[in-house]
Design goal:
The protein has helices at residues 9-57, 64-145. The protein is an all-alpha fold.
């Protein structure tokens, strides 16, 4: 029996490789996003803990240098969070762009896959017709011999 050969298979393989590259690029961006969000959450927890400790230090004898250093640390953490939020905004923009590229790559793969499926169906119908014609011819030859 004949085998189906899709002439555009190398193009389909190439487009699938490109799609995989786009998926990996998006995954790298997403990993970076998750890391930055984790850093921001950790810094926010440290600010909350620092404020709680500051509240405890305001009871009884007050050490102004400790309070000053805790306030300075909170301000530094807040400044770092603001910088990370700016970086995070850029990462979100890059992720949106990467998702768009991935969607385009996936659409290109799907287009070739649909073409392959249509061509396969056409080939299968043609093969069925050839086999039916061959069987009809064998049947006619068999009747002619009898």
């Amino acid at each position: 029996m004949a085998r189906f050969r899709f002439k555009l298979q190398p193009l389909l393989d190439h487009r699938k490789r490109l799609e995989g590259e786009k998926q990996r690029a998006l995954a790298v961006i997403e990993r970076r996003r998750i890391d930055i969000e984790d850093q921001i959450r950790a810094m926010q927890r440290r600010i909350v803990e620092n404020k709680a400790e500051l509240g405890r230090n305001l009871v009884g004898s007050v050490d102004t240098s400790a309070i000053r250093s805790q306030a300075a640390m909170s301000m530094q953490l807040d400044a770092r969070i603001r910088r990370l939020v700016a970086v995070l905004a850029e990462i979100y923009r890059r992720a949106d762009h990467a998702r768009g590229e991935l969607l385009l790559a996936r659409t290109r793969v799907k287009a070739i896959e649909r073409l392959r499926d249509r061509r396969y169906e056409q080939w299968r119908l043609a093969e069925t017709k050839r086999e039916t014609a061959a069987l009809d011819e064998l049947g006619a030859m068999n009747r002619a011999i009898r």
